[in-house]
Amino acid sequence: MKAQLLDALRDACGDAAVLADAASIEPYVTDWRGTFVGRASAVVRPASTEQVSEVVRICSDARIPIVPQGGNTGLAAGATPLQLRDAIIVSLSRMRRIVSVDADAYAVTVEAGCVLADVQQAARRAERLFPLSLAAEGSAEIGGLVSTNAGGTAVLRYGTMRSLVLGLEAVLPDGRIVDGLRALYKDNAGYDWKQLFIGAEGTLGIVTRAVLRLFPMPRERVTALIGIDLSETALRVFSHLQTMLGETLSACELFPDRALALRVAYEPGLRRPMAEHAWYLLVEATSSLSTLRTAAEEAFVALDDAGLAGAIVIAENSAQARALWEWRETITETEKRTGRSVKHDVSVPISAIPEFIARATERIERDHPGVTVLAFGHFGDGNIHFNVLVPGATTAVVDAISAAVYEMIADFRGSITAEHGIGRYRRNELLAHRSIFEMDLMRTVKRALDPGNVMNPGAVLEE
Ligand SMILES: Cc1cc2nc3c(=O)[nH]c(=O)nc-3n(C[C@H](O)[C@H](O)[C@H](O)COP(=O)(O)OP(=O)(O)OC[C@H]3O[C@@H](n4cnc5c(N)ncnc54)[C@H](O)[C@@H]3O)c2cc1C
Questions:
Q1: What atom in ligand 1 is closest to the CA of residue 141?
Q2: CB of 65 within 8 A of CB of 88?
Q3: Is the Cβ atom of 148 under 6 angstroms away from ligand 1?
Q4: At which of 216, 250, 277 does a domain end?
Q5: CB of 75 closer than 6 angstroms to any ligand 1 atom
Q6: Atom of ligand 1 nearest to the CA of 421
Q7: Domain boundary among 153, 186, 216
Q8: Are 223 and 282 in contact (CB under 8 A)?
Q9: Domain span including residue 248
Q10: What is the pLDDT of residues 433-446, one digit of tens each?
Q11: 144 within ligand 1 shell (Cβ under 6 A)
């Protein structure tokens, strides 16, 4: 059976596109953090939509589970075949063509395997901006970013992937190709079915191509780091900057000194960007207008006058801006080096962030001596990565920590995952925190599109 299936897949995509030996498969079945290791019969690397369609048809007819995979940087084990028998991983990484850039239509059409950094660069060459930006942008691929409805550092101004996708092409779980590759900004012709695939984590079909929205390339950019002593102050700083800088404010990231201290510990010789403060806000404003820097400097002076900022460092050039961003973007990598951590990618109303962080930190560190909370994230989106460093903790302790965090999230009517998604990692939490009716709605959609349950079974919903 297995040999027949592999032969059929080789016929569809070519011999070199099918990896079936354990050593070649190993990187594909291990998640980015190295925490989850699954099993697969083979990895198939199709080179076109037609080949994806053929692969899906073969697997679907044989009732073989399919796990779509992009850059494998996801943080919810959605692309890792855990507890699946004979799964086939369909890697889109060979499909990395920028199909076209239409600067006048503010749209770029790409294949699903395009790496985010390459799409940003293609847009830049056409003097346009593709605003999605995140620390994994050198590896994460468009299909994965669409399928996780990725957020990143500019959601405040440009929204998540959901608002950046104009059109989509996908292969359905029975192998049919649905073509909605339209570069339209307005289109009310019936249900907007592409939205179903955005954030579906590969459970409803395989995204093969996308038309993405571009923006004018900002000519001015101001990046600043603001040191503050209390997390409550972050709310007042954010509100002040929103009022003074309006829509030009594109990022507002919060992180604690603990994050800086960790990085300094791993990179001796590295100096903090400013004197120590309990918290930092990294803010960025961008505009096509040459008056931005003056407006931003006025806003920072007013912040200072109001006693809201302990210190402010404004980047003088793009190298300095990059260095400030590195403090934020290396947090996840540095955290990985500390060993085990329990990750919570939660969201609450922006106004509740300081209270949530304070209450949750106090409770977790009191109830579990020896653990350290590392809370940071996209303040302007209400999205906090409430991670807990737990050296040597048992599974029971880890579970108790997560249960407490999610209980508090429910108190604030927040979400158990703001941007990383459910995957296989948070499936039980989804069941516990969404109503029976909402779960039934999701199962109805899944059954309608994938009655044989071949497309990424066990991700998001129970198998
Ligand atoms: C250092 C670091 C920083 C990160 N920062 C952010 C951040 O700021 N914001 C954020 O939102 N995320 C962030 N992430 C998470 C991750 O980068 C995103 O989830 C990204 O969208 C995953 O893309 P990928 O190509 O690696 O997808 P994968 O990990 O390969 O897959 C993710 C999910 O999408 C599905 N999938 C992949 N390709 C397809 C396809 N073509 N069709 C259908 N389904 C598919 C998979 O089955 C899986 O369920 C970060 C990750 C890391 C490691």
A1: 25
A2: yes
A3: yes
A4: 216
A5: yes
A6: 19
A7: 216
A8: yes
A9: 220-330
A10: 999 999 999 999 99
A11: yes
**Ligand 1 atom closest to residue 456's alpha carbon, by position in its atom list:** 47
Q: How confident is the model at residue 463 (pLDDT cuts 50, 70, 90)?
A: confident
**Residue identifier of the C-alpha nearest atom 11 of ligand 1:** 150
Cα–Cα separations (whole angstroms), residue 148 to 36, 142, 197, 416, 457: 18, 10, 9, 14, 16
Q: Atom 28 (ligand 1): residue with closest C-alpha?
A: 72
- The answer for residues whose C-beta is within 8 angstroms of residue 176's C-beta and 6 or more apart is 53
Distance between Cα 114 and ligand 1 center (Å)? 13
Domain count, the chain: 4
Q: Output Rg (C-alpha) for the chain, integer angstroms.
A: 23
- Tokens describing residue 264: 């300094």
The residue type of 377 is: G
- Which distant-in-sequence residues (6+ apart) come within 8 Å of 188 by Cβ? none
pLDDT of 268 > 90? The answer is no
pTM of the model: 0.93
194 and 103 co-located in one domain: yes
Q: Which amino acid would we find at residue 286?
A: T
Q: How far is the CA of 361 from the centre of ligand 1 (A)?
A: 28
| Whether the CB of 68 sits within 6 Å of ligand 1 | yes
Over residues 386-422, the pLDDT tens digits come to: 999 998 878 899 999 999 999 999 999 999 999 999 9
Residues 105 and 210 in one domain: yes
Does residue 419 have its Cβ closer than 6 Å to ligand 1?
Answer: yes
Q: pLDDT for 148-170, tens place per residue?
A: 999 988 999 999 999 999 999 99
Instruction: Look up the CATH number of the domain holding residue 152.
Output: 3.30.465.10
- 353 within some domain: yes
pLDDT tens by residue, 8-62: 999 999 999 999 999 999 999 999 988 899 999 999 999 999 999 999 999 999 9
Is 154 among the domain residues?
Answer: yes
> Is the Cβ–Cβ distance between 257 and 330 less than 8 Å?
no
> Could you give the 3-state DSSP secondary structure of residue 31?
coil
Pocket test for ligand 1, best of 147, 334, 378, 417 (most atoms within 8 A of CB): 147
> What whole-number distance in Å separates Cα of residue 352 and Cα of residue 417?
16
Q: Is the Cβ atom of 417 under 6 angstroms away from ligand 1?
A: no
